[in-house]
Amino acid sequence: MLTVAAARPSPYTFDPSTTALLVIDMQRDFLEPGGFGESLGNDVGQLRRTIAPLTALLAGARAAGLSVVHTREGHLPDLSDCPPAKLNRGLPSKRIGDPGPKGRILVRGEYGHDIVDELSPLPGEPVIDKPGKGAFYATGLDALLADQQIRSLLVTGVTTEVCVHTTVREANDRGYECLVLADCVGSYFPEFQRVGLDMIAAQGGIFGWVADSTDVLAVLP
Ligand code: C5J
What we know:
This protein is an alpha/beta fold. The protein contains nine helices and ten strands. The strands form three sheets. The protein has a six-stranded parallel β-sheet, with helices on both faces. A two-stranded antiparallel ribbon has the order 1-2. Strands 5-6 form a two-stranded antiparallel ribbon. α7 (160-173) links the parallel β8 (152-158) and β9. α7 (160-173) runs parallel beside α8 (190-205). The longest helix has 16 residues, at 190-205. The radius of gyration is 17 Å and the shape is globular. 43% of the residues are buried. The mean pLDDT is 97. Dicarbonimidic diamide binds next to α7.
């Protein structure tokens, strides 16, 4: 067992053989200059600062033999898996399925939908395509983790208050122990980043634990 003593609200203990590194939605359309996220007026720099620490954490996790699972948010080309409640949100002409700067917005197979080059999955690492914000909704993630006897999740990715939070809440209800890496999750909004992390660790860790990637790297074999 390994312990991240600096985690808040209390030390986080995990068994590397039953722990996965979860990398949520590190997609070009959210992170890259000229992508969909930036076209909405967002400062992608707020998300891009996660790439360097996450690259180092990925390398450390792979070297330590942890399972690594990536996710991507997006929809089938015919949008049949996108409920109207999601499809009809957002600025007209900048909705899911519309032409965007890097291909159709949040549609599977489009350039912008894929993961940034810096964090490309290695052959054999599962990539979960998810239609929702949470990585468990309408995906095979729970079965995949159960198959590998995974009980603990090191959670990274974007955005902190949307897909990361939703996934951590879903995971917590399913009994997974989540450690969210503060420097490896990002929000376009600094106040959401701060409050989003505080909400996870509040009330004795109501949804999980929070630490920095260097705290994990320091204990990985
Ligand atoms: C959003 C996500 N923010 N991956 N998606 O729409 O957080």
